[in-house]
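FYI - complex with NAP, inputs then prediction.
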Amino acid sequence: MKLKTLLLHAICSLCLFTGLSAQEANKDITVLITGANRGLGYEFAKQFSEKGYTVIGTARTPEEATELKATGAEILKLDVTSEEDIAALAESLKGRKLDILINNAGYFGPTLSVGKKNAKINNITRKEMLDCFTINTMGPIFLSQALLPNLKLSTNPKIINISTRSSQLSTRPGKAWGYSVSKTGLNMVTMNLHGELSKQGFIVIALAPGHNQTDMGNGDLMPEESIGKMIPLIENLTKEKSGRFWYYDGKELPW
Ligand SMILES: NC(=O)c1ccc[n+]([C@@H]2O[C@H](COP(=O)([O-])OP(=O)(O)OC[C@H]3O[C@@H](n4cnc5c(N)ncnc54)[C@H](OP(=O)(O)O)[C@@H]3O)[C@@H](O)[C@H]2O)c1
């Protein structure tokens, strides 16, 4: 065999070897993603699974989460507004290490449906505000609380709260009342968790995925691209990046 061919073989074997060992190492890292049956949550589950991670995806109706099942993820039932579901999930994971919790499940409000306008001050309802707050703000609080014992078993625990640029106080007055206010609340949840847990080695961030094409969003960005950029961002988080707000492309966002 010519020297050039031998060299090529050696390089290919090295790539294969390092690729496989990265997959092997990822198997030891468990990531739990809420609302993983569709949209960005599904794409997170798919891409984390493809990278060899141990993935737990939650869904409100696991029996209908066929695409999620096909990724190889373990599926657990969770409505983030249900105390019973949260308690049952925590019970089923008792003693098991969790490394990454992605609080992804979210609700825009009833006003997104085609032909309807976002609510304004004169027609926003108490129900819309409460529903958004219960899902988007309180969901991540009480799920993080319930899974703290699991995250504490990790040497590098991370809590990723999926926020949005609509939450930003500094640059973008939110157009959708329930959604924007509840996600601004989620940003404070992020800061509170960071304040209490960073000394214990936790990394806690808010992460905005960009305007994607999903049931919720009608943006130009495809979930494959957004998640493809957010996973390396999550993988490479350092303690200095905790307690901050990041955009999917790696830029920092003002609160
Ligand atoms: N798409 C965008 O452009 C965009 C932009 C900025 C931020 N985000 C954020 O990214 C996250 C994912 O958004 P997406 O676009 O993927 O939305 P999506 O397609 O509407 O999917 C929402 C997911 O959240 C789940 N969910 C809703 N209410 C829940 C509850 N009470 N308990 C548990 N799960 C619940 C849904 O489950 P069901 O199938 O059971 O309803 C679904 O899996 C959200 O937090 C959203 O705010 C999205």
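The chain has seven helices and eight strands. The two ends are 60 Å apart (CA to CA).
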